Amino acid sequence: MIFKAVDVGTLMEEMIPMLQQTFPKTITFSKNIQNGLPGIMQIDRRSSSLLNFCVIARDAMPNGGTVMLTAEKCMKAQIQDRSRKQINVHMYA
């Protein structure tokens, strides 16, 4: 396995046009991406995890919807606090 440092925000920005072209037009993409976020990923898998996330989101919205991609720097305490909050899911007929 070969790992490489990547800018997570740049990776996301580069993938959005491909996702918009290949996903149904009923799926839109919204983004909130902070620049300069470092990450270390396997070279051959750097985009597959984001793509997998988007495919799962698409499959969960058979009638369309918005996939919100967010990348931001946060502290460990913020992550723990977010994981304790309940996620609100809205169903639309």
User: Which regions are unreliable across 5 or more consecutive residues at pLDDT < 50?
Assistant: 86-93
Secondary structure: helix percent: 25-40%
| Element pattern in H and E | EHEEHEH
The percent range for strand residues is 25-35%
* Radius of gyration over all CA atoms, rounded: 15 Å
Specify the CATH architecture. 2-Layer Sandwich
- Strand segment tally: 4
Provide a quick synopsis of the model.
This protein has 93 residues and is α+β, with helices and mostly antiparallel strands.
General description of the model:
This protein has 93 residues and is an alpha+beta fold. It has a single domain (3-84), classed as Heat Shock Protein 90, CATH 3.30.565. It contains 3 helices and 4 strands; from the N terminus they run βαββαβα. It has helices spanning 8-22, 48-59, 76-84; strands at 3-7, 27-33, 38-42, 65-71. It has a two-stranded antiparallel sheet with strand order 1-3. A two-stranded parallel ribbon has the order 2-4. The longest helix has 15 residues, at 8-22. It is globular.
Walk me through the topology.
Blueprint: E1 3-7, H1 8-22, E2 27-33, E3 38-42, H2 48-59, E4 65-71, H3 76-84
Parallel strand pairs: 2-4
Antiparallel strand pairs: 1-3
